Amino acid sequence: MENNLSTWESFATGAKQFLNDVVFQYVPKLIVACIVLFVGWKLINLLDKVMKRAYDRHKIDPSLQQFLHSVIDIILKVLLVVTAMSIMGIEMTSFIALLGAAGVAIGMGLQGTLQNFAGGVIILILKPFRVGDYIEQGSYAGYVESIQIFNTTLRTYD
Q1: What is the mean pLDDT of residues 92-103?
Q2: Which of 24, 71, 124, 127 to pair with 87, CA 20 to 30 A apart?
C-alpha cells in the first residue's frame, strides 16, 4: 500500500513539474505568438490593399504590380513567421543561416534564369520601350506585344 502511495506522489510531483515547466512557461508564449501571427496577417492584408490602391493611383504597369506585390507579400510573411517562432523561443540564428545558404544554392543553380529575371525587372522598371513600340534587337525586329518578367513578346513581320 505504501509503495502505491509513493508511486502516486511521484506521479503527482512529475505532473506538477510538467505543468510548471511546459504549460505555464510555453503556453503564454504560444498564445502571444498566435496573436502576433493573426494581427500580422491582418496587417499584411491591409498593406496589400493600400499597395494596390497606390499602384492604381500612380499608374504602375500591371506586370510590375504583380511582381512587386508577390515579392513584398512573401518577404513580409516570412518575416512574420520568423518573428512568431522567435517569440515562442525557437533559436532563429541557425534557421536564418539555413535560409541564407538555401538562397545562395538556389541562386547558383538558377544563375542564367535569374539574369533573365533581373533583365525583365529592369525593363519593367525603367521602361525603355512599351507595348506597341517598334524595336530592333540583333536580328529580331517587331512590335512589342507584351512585356513580362522572363520574356518580351514581339510581333514580327514573319
Answers
A1: 83
A2: 71
* Sequence-distant (≥ 6) Cβ neighbours of residue 156 within 8 angstroms: 140, 141, 142
Q: Could you report the per-residue pLDDT of 29-52, keeping only the tens digit for each?
A: 889 999 999 999 999 999 999 988
Q: What one-character-per-residue DSSP string does 45-100 give?
A: HHHHHHHHHHHHHHT--HHHHHHHHHHHHHHHHHHHHHHHHHHTT---HHHHHHHH
CA distance 74 to 81: 11
| pLDDT tens, position by position, 81-94 | 989 988 888 887 88
Provide the 10 A C-beta neighbour count for residue 74: 10
As a whole number of angstroms, the distance between CA 141 and CA 65 comes to 27
114 DSSP β-pair partners: none
